[in-house]
Specification:
By secondary structure, the protein is of the alpha/beta class. The protein has three domains: 114 residues, Rossmann fold (3-Layer(aba) Sandwich), CATH 3.40.50.720; 164 residues, Rossmann fold (3-Layer(aba) Sandwich), CATH 3.40.50; 51 residues. Helix content is 37%, strand content 16%. Helix 9 links the parallel strand 8 and strand 9. The longest helix is centred in the last third of the chain and has 19 residues. It is globular and about 60 Å long. The chain starts with a strand and ends with a strand.
């Protein structure tokens, strides 16, 4: 059996070596010719899974090691009898941790940090539901909008217009849908932005085109809004003026924890084994780098919100990503996209809150409760 895979899928050779021959290629080299004799094709979001790539191939099963599937022609795959799986939810916790870091960073000038702010969460699936949990752990009021989940019987949702009018922070965690019952392309457009509170924050860690970039930048320059963005319209050819206007910018790496990547590989590996009638025997703990058993953190001199930020920054910081964004958009257009992709492909090792125990010096019961609700493992 031959497996052809994007070489940016973490540990893909380790995972699939027990199934057959594994050939890994950079995404631009995943061409119809390269996959013509493949039984299994594994990609990420930069490669479109559909007839242009797969027509006439031997593929019996294909997968994307990503949560998003807007690059996949699922009806066509089904019509050809080609099995498909995604890694839906694999990076959900990582993105929610990016949200926590971003909110604590953007509100660090407030005496109480994010406490008491109203956070509007648009899209309350695998990612958004975890964002809700972390926002509440930080003392925020939460409003939620998710029409598909509401129609399916979900409770506690509010109209999108209410989120626009009432949110101090509006954060997007939706797929990109250009049609259908719930289109999300430019869901936050100029008209919607004008309904928001003055000074409100916009976070986007879903898909760039969910937010109208030009309209947002205009309102940042006017002082109407502020923002932190992880994804961008026209990625990877990002407008330098957009990055310059944003206080916190990252190169679509909110979900790029090592744990999320391993989870994504494991999900598509298990799906492939099931589809092909094989036993799933790969153990990722044999290849993942070790993490410290205990991390010590002294919070005795810190107020509650600063202690939360210090704990989050033990695992993840914005500075390297933000600096990269500001540097790469100064490159000429062809090189800009190449360097953007290279940074994401070679992203540093980032671990999630639960991978090491945190031992606090100082801190009261309320702080400990907040940290535990945010997903930290406390000891001592």
């Amino acid at each position: 059996m031959k497996i052809v895979a994007d070489n940016n899928i973490s540990y893909v050779k380790d995972a699939f070596a027990g199934i057959g021959e594994v050939v890994t290629l950079p995404a631009p080299e995943l061409t119809p010719q390269a996959v013509a004799d493949a039984d299994v094709v594994l990609t990420r979001s930069t490669v479109k899974l559909g007839p242009a790539l797969l027509q006439g191939s031997k593929a019996r099963f294909v997968a994307t090691a990503t949560s998003g599937v807007d690059h996949v022609d699922q009806p066509w795959l089904a019509s050809q009898g080609i099995g498909f799986a995604s890694a839906h939810g694999s990076n959900a916790n990582a993105v929610a941790e990016w949200f926590a870091l971003t909110l604590l960073t953007m509100t660090r000038w407030r005496p109480d940090g994010p406490k008491g702010l109203t956070v509007g969460v648009v899209g309350v699936g695998a990612v958004g539901s975890r964002v809700v949990t972390k926002a509440k752990a930080m003392g925020c009021h939460v409003l939620m909008s998710d029409p598909p989940l509401e129609r399916a019987g979900g409770q506690g949702f509010s109209p999108y217009q209410d989120l626009l009018a009432k949110s101090d922070v509006l954060t997007f965690h939706t797929p990109l849908e250009r049609g259908g019952q719930d289109p999300t392309h430019h869901l936050l457009n100029a008209a919607a932005m004008d309904q928001m509170k003055d000074g409100a924050l916009v976070f986007n860690a879903s898909r760039g085109a969910v937010v109208s970039g030009d309209a947002l930048i205009e309102r940042i320059h006017s002082g109407k809004l502020n923002a932190a963005l992880d994804c961008w319209e026209h990625e990877p050819q990002i407008e330098p003026a957009h990055v310059a206007a944003i206080p916190l910018a990252s190169p679509h790496t909110a979900g790029h924890s090592l744990d999320a990547k391993i989870s994504g590989t494991m999900m598509v590996y298990q799906a492939a084994c099931k589809a092909l009638g094989l036993s799933a025997n790969w153990d990722p703990s044999t290849v993942a780098p070790p993490t410290p058993d205990v991390i010590d953190l002294d919070v005795r001199a810190l107020p509650h919100n600063q202690a939360l930020l210090a704990a989050v920054r033990t695992f993840h910081t914005h500075e390297p990503d933000d600096a990269m964004m500001r540097a790469v958009v100064q490159d000429p257009v062809p090189q800009r996209g190449k360097n953007f992709r290279a940074y994401r492909r070679n992203y540093r090792v980032r671990r999630e809150f639960h991978t090491s125990r945190l031992r606090l010096q100082g801190g009261d019961a309320h702080l400990r409760q907040s940290l535990t609700q945010m997903g930290f493992i406390l000891t001592g």
